[in-house]
Each structure stands twice: as structure tokens, then as C-alpha cells.
Amino acid sequence: MEFLIWIGAATTLAGIAALIWCIGMVLRARRDAPSDAELRERLRRALPVNIGALFLSVIGLMLVIVGVTLS
């Protein structure tokens, strides 16, 4: 079951990379948004990416735990 550990680690790293990308997107939005309404719209678009990245990280960590438990 070692392959589950490696797949889970890769999935977790992909989720963390997406979280870092989302943080950068929000920081750029805060810096470049001309108005409060524009900032809210950009943050509204970033929210699904953030939730998806967190979900991907959690699934990856679960795969790692299952792989370690079954090993």
C-alpha cells in the first residue's frame, strides 16, 4: 500500500500549491482592486479555488493516513 502514500503526498502537495496560488491571487486583488465592489468580486471568484484546494489537501492527507495504516 505504499503507492497510496505517494499518491496522497502528491495530492496534498497539489492542494498546497493551489492554496499558495490562491493566496497570491487574493494579495494581487487587494493591491490592484480600484473599488470595494471590484475587490468583493475578485474575492468571490477566489473562494471556490480556495475551497477546492483545501478539499484536495484533505483528500491527500486521508490517502496518506490510509496508506500508512494499511502498510
Q: What are the SSEs and their pairings?
A:
Elements: H1 2-32, H2 36-70
Helix pairs in contact: 1-2
Task: Report mean pLDDT, rounded to a whole number.
Answer: 92
- Subunit organisation of the chains: single chain
**Distance N terminus to C terminus?**
6 Å
Low-confidence stretches: none
* Shape estimate: rod-shaped
Q: How would you classify the helix and strand content by structural class?
A: mainly alpha
β-strand number: 0
Question: What are the defining features of this structure?
Answer:
mainly alpha, 93% helix
Describe what you observe in this structure.
It contains two helices and no strands. The mean pLDDT is 92. Helices cover 93% and strands 0% of the residues. With 71 residues, the protein is mostly helical. The N and C termini lie close together (6 Å).
